[in-house]
């Protein structure tokens, strides 16, 4: 064989071996389980010892798996129960690695601290990064099952993840999806990114926080851009309502960033509770915050927020700058229209060792009943901080005054020295001054000596207290001011004690943050040292008023150690005697109470008492509450009310039962209600409260009332069935109501489904009711004298618990309805109320019927969304009022509109007939001048504007008998009223015929006008002329008369005659039809007539003098039946025990003086002197 042939043979053999035989063998190996097993076992011997697995299974050509795979290195280790791979090896021929599935079973990953490699990703090298791959990678499905992560010494974390991604050869990454499950959070993301500089990307991320330590929160984050210009948006929901945007520029050069936050009506209490800040009123933020920063570590924060705390609004503005180790505050202001303004300026240098230079300015800052303006300055390092204050405070209690205070203090590392304390008041020009020192270097020592006079009362504070573990020496502790005296003295050590006394004669004399009055006495003996105290404390008060709530006979006694003591308490409040006796034990994180006695004794009920001793335990660290059966039972009754609680794992199971409880016990507490209640209540309920979520779960309530009876003044209704239930229904709650009363044909059924029991829970439901006898209205309201008819109602319910939407469909037929006070009779009336569309946004009301013998029509629509109302009332000859004193028939044409928070009432009202006879003034009861009527303050809201414009026309049959006038009126009047202002009128009411009573005589009205010129409708101007025609005899005038002008409430009178005569003669002819007999009789005659004229108005006159000048008594009286003895008396209490009264004659020149002095509770001294006599008496009173 030639050389060339041999060479060709060898080359061909090698080609067959390399390109046919070896690939065939390799393919045969990887496409068979045994071959794949051999290759892996052979390769295992070449792998480093840090990679191990227990078993291999599958084919390397498509699917294979490892069991118990473990990888170890100096800084990293990982172990998994299993690892499975499904891939497409043939895709490598297309320069692509396609992995169908990569699954890592449960395991653990540990990252340990090792040597730190040099940082090759410095900013100077990042811009040179250019990523390209030899092949593309397509990981279609990745799964990491629940595994534990251990990072250095940090707490272990548990994760699970799924992902799908693709990386092109050009270095472009597509993250199709990423789902990361942590024990306390869940993250999902998708992204597009370029792995080469400038790293252009688009990222969408969603995070859900479900940690037991923090409120549940959802965060969405979207970002796009590159290292030169990056921007994004974020949105926070559930625990907060915050959204905003951010941007980052020139990361590698002069980096700068900006963020804008929009905080939308977010309540912070849940987050504050997560950091153990509890017990606060709701704190809400609403507004914007702008943040900017740069590479020089300079951060600027500019807030513009509305802050709402305890229902008080405030705004927060200013500028906060962080630059290196310095924080600068510029006009950081919290301002409230109602509470004043607090503004802080200054800076804090060197945060590692701070130097403070801050000034806080207060401007009309309100707290309770005080208003403060001034400054507080802080200067120096923390170990030598100078504090100075200068404030001016307006106080209202114990009396209105201005308090000026100046202090200078030095706070050192172990001592606080109040070098100067100076407080003055502008009311009495009083001043208190002194100094104080608190030292805690080796032992705690408190010394203070402050004295002077404040608000006209001596003030003194003297303290000398020393604490040297474990003993306390109280050498002196004395505080005296106004009505309070506090003293303490002694030593806390074995065999010794400290005695404390507090005596407040009247709380009203102290500037307390709440309204309080009455006495308070405290006596306490404290024995032992600070580590083992023993208390014997008594607190008493005979009469106490706190926030308008009266307490009496308060007695509280505590005996024992602070952590193990007996407590007894008794008091009277709400017409009820309360008694309590407990044994209390306090631990570091819990309190245990043994409730031994609890008695509630209302003056109108048999007493309630504890059925048996009850144990109560609460752990505030784990939020566990446990209550053994706590049962209250009424004397003479078998029924009882019981409650129990059992906690486990942060959840408390609550159980309550009520068996046969007599509902009549509610009547004393609803004494103002028009009905009384009878019946027996039976109820069972269970619930679960989750303390971590602050959520009520698994509620099941069943309530029924046996023989429920409602009784009014003359009528009563007995229900055949009445029950309410609330129970879980699959994943929702369902509430049901059932009430039937056959005697009035009443049937009510209701059902409500709720997603949860939180305020924002969505709900759906319905209520169907039929009332065949309106007699129930007579029972419920004393204003209804008689009612006959029927009502059918179907209500659809939707929305949420705090915003319920009602879709009504109500139809009523009124055969007869009579109002008790006005005797208004409504009959033959049909009323309907229904939603006009499926959106339940518009309601329509229609009513047609009769009032008296006249017909009326009422129609209207109300749009819920726009809060707009349109209504129209028309009628003919409606007998609106039909009483003996007042009878009015009207023909109305009225329009009512509500738009843009403005309610308008316009139209015409014709009064064809009326009989008006008001009560006499002597029947009117007036409150004493010292009576103060207090009303419950309503929350401030947007006030509804009102406007009325009514045209009133009087017909031919309007008769009035009032204030001396009796006659028939006619005319037209336009009445206008805005908001709560006085109704005013324009127009004229004329007297067609009538009489006017002057000096007790009825005179004929020749002409008369009631003129309204825009003044109050109840006080028109008068233009009346009355006359008395006399017989034509010798000496008599032809006629006498009087002109009445002024106003209805303050008329003026002029007398006239023809021919002219003196007023005394005219008055005599008006009253008696004859001339006066003598001058003295004429004078008496005038006085008698004047007194007769003002008889009904005397109370108003004397009350006005009392209110104007602060007198306790003003009266016109006579000691005898002789009118000449008539005098004006004025009386006044100079002190609570001394009363004087002075009288001056109205006819004759006389005077009198009266004095009364109370010597004791039962003994009085009285003295009387006048121009005619003198005398004195000693009076002793015995009460029976």
Automatic annotation (TrEMBL):
Compartments in which it is found: Membrane
Keyword set includes Membrane: yes
GO terms of biological process kind: protein secretion
Mode of membrane association: Single-pass membrane protein
Keyword Hydrolase: no
Keywords: Membrane, Transmembrane, Transmembrane helix
Origin: domain of life: Bacteria
Pfam families per record: TamB
InterPro entries given in the database record: TamB_C
Main location: membrane
Signal peptide range: none
Ranges for domain Translocation and assembly module TamB C-terminal: 851-1183
Positions of transmembrane segments: 7-31
Protein name (record): Autotransporter translocation and assembly factor TamB
Organism: Idiomarina aquatica
